[in-house]
Amino acid sequence: MNPSFHLLPHSATTASGRYDALFITQTIVLLTVALAIAILIVVFSVRYRAGSKADRSNAPTSARAVEIAWTVTPLVLFIATFIWAAYDFTQLYRVPPDAMPVFVVAKQWMWKLEHANGKREIDELHVPVNRPVRLVMTSQDVIHSFYVPAFRIKQDVVPGRYTTIWFIATETGEFHLHCAEYCGTDHAAMGGRIIVMQPGEYTAWLARGNTQPGMAARGFELYRRYGCSGCHEAQASVHAPDLHGLLGRDVHLSDGRSLIADEAYIRDSILLPRKDVVAGYKPIMPSFAGQISEEDLLAIIEYIRSTGGDHARASQ
Ligand SMILES: [Cu+2]
């Protein structure tokens, strides 16, 4: 079957073929089952209508084989579909370790994007072809949803937390970006485009006209300006956890829980410092809620990432 006969949008990532195969298979199975039932209903309705001369003698009182068949067949089909879909779903969260992070802050009604070197763009995202890209996203107002039909990715972008999604684009070109969560008056206009480029072109584009410092450098500046370094550096007089190489590390908390430090954990620790207090420390850190913008939070996280550790660990 020629996939480009427009039943489905163009497909331009490594994962989109898998999702399409699942969707098409499921559609065919469900249509087949629905059609079989519809045909039987019509046939029986006509044959056994009131007053018809159909043979009603010797009606069977049980048909074990038929009953087992119509119970087991759908069961096997649907469980197989579930396993297939569950596998694909887990792949959404198995981010390749070399994935390139891009940071997304949504607001009514635009997408603000920032690359690790500090280059920013609005409603456009430039990425290299054949390279895993991981989006770390949040919203500064209401819920939005980052939707690229040709990539088969759609992820809610939620105020107060980070969500992530990743993809590997398989061809160069331009692809539509939409907001897929009704977010107010100009929701329908909250779109943009993803521009997939050859790696060399992308590198040149990334460097071109960028006067911003890299996110990690800006994050270090903020780390000092907000006074983080006053407590979190080794020579500080206040005893606070060391942040070097924190991303991806196992963290043991004072209430006995432990977790893996990801972007969401660092964000929560800055805004809600009493939520996850590290074992052996007192809950003395003040909250920075309402004082730091989403962009600055991301920069501080990028600074912490730059100090080492397991960079690649996926959040969520
Ligand atoms: Cu929106």
From TrEMBL:
For this chain's record, the cofactor binding note is: Binds a copper A center.
Its EC number is 7.1.1.9
Q: Which residues cross the membrane?
A: 23-44, 65-87
Which segments constitute the Cytochrome c domain? 214-308
Q: Which Gene3D superfamilies does this chain map to?
A: 1.10.287.90, Cupredoxins - blue copper proteins (2.60.40.420), Cytochrome c-like domain (1.10.760.10)
Residues in domain Cytochrome oxidase subunit II copper A binding? 97-208
- UniProt topology in membrane: Multi-pass membrane protein
Q: What cofactor does its activity depend on?
A: Cu cation
**What does the protein in this record do?**
Subunits I and II form the functional core of the enzyme complex. Electrons originating in cytochrome c are transferred via heme a and Cu(A) to the binuclear center formed by heme a3 and Cu(B).
Spell out the family assignment given in the record's similarity comment.
Belongs to the cytochrome c oxidase subunit 2 family.
Report the protein name in the record: Cytochrome c oxidase subunit 2
Gene that this sequence comes from = coxB
